[in-house]
Amino acid sequence: MKSDLFSSDHMVQPAVAPGMTVQNAKSIRYAVNGEMLARQGAMVAYRGNLQFERKGQGVGGMLKRAVTGEGLPLMAVRGQGEAWFAHEAQNCFIVDVEPGDVFTVNGRNVLCFDASLSYDIKTVKGAGITGGGLFNSVFTGQGRLGLMCEGNPLVIPVSQHQPVFVDTDAVVGWTANLHTSLHRSQSIGSMLRGGSGEAVQLKLEGEGYVVVRPSEATPQKPQQH
């Protein structure tokens, strides 16, 4: 059978090392030798001797999920083999988390990650329940984190003298040492659309980087359990 479909541009090559790699712009390949974690329902193909199991978050995690709505439904992938992960053809990226790093990311942008990383749900400082209830997933430890994003993300440096204001529906994540707070401003666009005229952004101050996707959040589909 002859077709451009079977060219080297699309053909999967053997993995050269265990762990996570970008397969193409829309998917991540993980060569599993032990255990890794991924978003439930994100596996699109696999080969080898792999087992998939829903990952419980424990009583504390269940309570956080009930209160925050953030929840990161995970599955553990164990064994030896290869698995490919993708979600709604979103663009995929890999972040290397080093010891001492803290990376805060919206749960909707998490695709998969190494089991060596620790994960927790925390309230965004300055944006608690009274401020609309912003909750993100916080990753620490050492390992690789696979992210997904609608479109190509913007990575914006933040400095002490130049804070960055981000739409709360567009923010993907940010690095450690950034202070967050809610910033309210008058929005002409909002007033023209019949809104109250008050817009709310997430203000980030300090030294680091914030990652923003080039679109606002779309309604979340119900999770299957």
Report on the structure:
The structure is a single chain. The strands form three sheets. Strands 1, 2, 3, 4, 5, 7 and 10 form a seven-stranded antiparallel sheet that branches. β1 and β2 form a beta hairpin. This protein is mainly beta and 225 residues long. It is built from two helices and 16 strands.
Task: Look at the structure and give the mean pLDDT.
Answer: 81
Low-confidence stretches: 62-70, 128-133
Order of helices and strands: EEEHEEEEEEEEEEEHEE
Largest sheet features: 7 strands, antiparallel
State the share of residues found in helices, binned by percent. under 10%
Termini Cα gap: 40 Å
**Count of helices?**
2
Evaluate the radius of gyration: 19 Å
Q: Looking at the chains present, what oligomeric state does this protein adopt?
A: single chain
Q: Name the shape in a single word.
A: globular
Q: What is the total tally of β strands? A: 16
**Secondary-structure-derived class:** mainly beta
Percent of residues in beta strands:
over 45%
Topology:
Layout: E1 19-24, E2 27-39, E3 43-55, H1 58-68, E4 74-85, E5 91-97, E6 102-105, E7 110-114, E8 117-123, E9 135-141, E10 143-149, E11 154-158, E12 164-167, E13 171-175, E14 178-186, H2 188-192, E15 198-206, E16 208-212
Antiparallel strand pairs: 1-2, 2-4, 2-7, 3-4, 5-10, 6-9, 6-13, 7-10, 8-9, 11-16, 12-15, 13-16, 14-15
Quick recap of the structure?
This protein is mainly beta.
Q: Which properties best describe this structure?
A:
about 220 residues; mainly beta; 6-stranded antiparallel β-sheet; globular
